[in-house]
Specification:
Blueprint: H1 16-19, H2 25-35, H3 40-47, H4 51-65, H5 70-80
Helix pairs in contact: 2-3, 2-4, 2-5, 3-4
């Protein structure tokens, strides 16, 4: 007698970008810096902006995606490959 195991059919989860609103290039850049461990001020200096502008980009991302913490922002950056 021979047994064959078949894994149940599961659908792969949709990529985050398929369901999430598109992020502007500068939002992505700010997100990449924060996920890399930079402070808002450090990210601003790398981007040639004020820390208030970086804060605005990150607030916009949080509003678009319903994110409430830096840890969630970091997880998003990883899932987007930033």
């Amino acid at each position: 007698m021979s047994l064959t195991l078949i894994a149940p059919h599961t659908e792969a989860p949709a990529p985050a970008t398929a369901t999430a609103p598109a992020l502007a290039p500068r939002e992505q850049e700010a997100l990449r810096h924060i996920a890399a461990g930079c402070t808002y001020l450090q990210a601003a200096r790398h981007m040639g902006l004020s820390k208030h502008t970086v804060d605005a980009y990150l607030r916009r991302i949080r509003a678009k995606l319903g994110i409430h913490s830096t840890a969630e922002l970091t997880r998003l950056a990883i899932s987007l490959g930033l």
